Amino acid sequence: MDKQDKGQEQFEFQSFGLKGKTILFCLLSIALMFLDHRTSYLRLPKYYLEEIIHPLSLIAEAPYRGIERLKQWYTEKEELLQRIATLEEKELYLAYETQQMAALTAENRRLRLLLQSSSKLDHSTIIAQLININSDPYRHIVLLNRGANQGVEENLPVLNNLGIVGQTVSVSPSSSKVILITDPHHSLPVEVNRNGIRGIANGNGKLNEIEISNIAFDDDVKVGDLLVTSGLDERFPQGYPVAVIKTITVDSTGYFAKIIATPTAKLDRIREVLILTPGEYDDLP
Fold first, then answer.
1. φ, ψ for residue 260 (rounded to 5)?
2. Taking Cα atoms as reference points, which of 191, 177, 266 lies closest to residue 225?
């Protein structure tokens, strides 16, 4: 017998052995299913067998459970990140609304103070809002959103609820320019509210102070005195607050006082102002 015949016989034997084992296991399985279904002989072995198999099944399922938990963790992380992003957007929007509300509240407060001041005045007024500031650091001129169409004219007094702001110098149909009392080109006759001593308030280019001239050094003037409009220029009505005296020194001549005063209108914070329209104060004595 040659090698080819021997190899064929060995292959047939192995094939027969594999088929026999398959048939044997099938018959054994059928028998076990029959016994399990019809009798209770396998109940106890099955109980212990399941106890043995249970840890093995947990070990076998561990990779799948690990992957599922990883997927769940990643999904939850994505959801949390998305929720955090949404909450941050809402927080930003609410902060923006809160800031707007604060700005509106402050504006309403200022407007109420202006209206209260307007109701105490003996003259007609126009409420205007500051919309631009002159970029020249040596000129203190602002632009208002009211003009000739609203009845504004040149050389009208402008004030807020705290005091004199300035006066209109040029007018267009829908806007007007106002020179502040701190502008170097502006002068205003004033008097000490306490005793009526008169002087001239001159702008010096500093937004938080003005200089008072034409007052003798030995006159009864004190730090803290309120300066008001005297009305002698026939432009500003008498008695409106202008500034409070800050310092008093003697000038180079030795006869006149060099007085520095702080404007009461807080010119670095103005937003809304009142424009006094022509009327009763045109006929000042």
1. -110, 130
2. 191
